[in-house]
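User: We ran a pulldown and think these components assemble together. Before we commit to crystallization trials, I'd like a predicted model of the whole complex to look at. Sequences follow.
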Amino acid sequence: MNIPDPYRLESHPLLIIVSGPAGVGKDALIRRLRQRGHPFHFVVTATDRPPRSGEVDGVDYYFVSGDQFARMIERGELLEHAVVYGQNKGIPKQHVREALTSGLDVVMRIDVQGASTIQRLVQDAVFIFLTASSDCELEARLRARGGDTEEQVQKRLAAAREEMDRLPAFDYVVVNRDGELNSSVDDVLAIIRAEHLRVDQPVVAI
Amino acid sequence: MNIPDPYRLESHPLLIIVSGPAGVGKDALIRRLRQRGHPFHFVVTATDRPPRSGEVDGVDYYFVSGDQFARMIERGELLEHAVVYGQNKGIPKQHVREALTSGLDVVMRIDVQGASTIQRLVQDAVFIFLTASSDCELEARLRARGGDTEEQVQKRLAAAREEMDRLPAFDYVVVNRDGELNSSVDDVLAIIRAEHLRVDQPVVAI
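Assistant: Here's a predicted model for the assembly, 412 residues in total across the polymer chains.
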């Protein structure tokens, strides 16, 4: 009898993309997911924006200068990169390669623009769209985060409204409600667990 | 902004089919799932086989006589029915209707034959295939269960081998290992949670 074994024999590492508009809590979700101690390989994004309070270089982001970022682009070292609200963000190719050979599930946080690019490059990734539960909640979070001018907050909100239109291209939607971050993390963990149990689970390759 | 809300606005009840060869532990899994206290609506199968030790009428099965079962067929009261190893099993239509109007997720345990029938009737159900981790494990369980003759055990094993071929028609596979029933239940719960988060979650109707 040919018994399929989703854990020991036939389950392949997954590439999980966590995306969504600015302010929905992507960074907080990834941080909490790390704290839970599951054996995931987290791909760290490079950015030339300054660290926010509590952010650690090499864990939350690779914080580089504008010049360094420009050199990474020139040398073709980025899988994709985008200017998000005037700040550069990009995924170093080298990290993705390392991640995919680690044998672990790979979790990648990326803005909605970037997710579209990855969707063209990798069809068999699992695309999760993180969202706030309402426009007001999103606005409140963007303000609470600080560091943005009123104009920037308005820009981010307008962009978020547009980015919501990209939702149908994603596989899953997780509503990250105020004070319910653990529930959102549980949602993501359930998605990853279920995807491993899919009969037609694909092999991801970049 | 049109925020989709998978729990409060747009999440529809799911129809979850738990199937798999005899001896893989479908009944034990459903029983443990009930014990966990999640608000599911369990569809109870009617059968004319005698109760096994500990089985409760109306909870594990509706235990009816051969005559009663024949009348249910005559009256068209069954959504589907099949003869499994000489014993009749069938899903009362009335229970499925009640279940689908309950607003809760509906969990239905059914043999592999029956699952094929349901697949033709309802495309948007979630089909979970439960399996043992090996042929030996399955054989040991069938023997431990008692009440079967050697010939019956051999018949069930041969049928199980054939039923494994139906796996590609299912959405998910859960390997129910000896002593790891809780892990299998967690698998099923993860599948249900993830299915609620799908962007293209369908509405089930029978």
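Residues 1-9 of chain A have pLDDT under 50 and may be disordered. That may be worth checking against your pulldown data before setting up trials.

User: Thanks, that helps.
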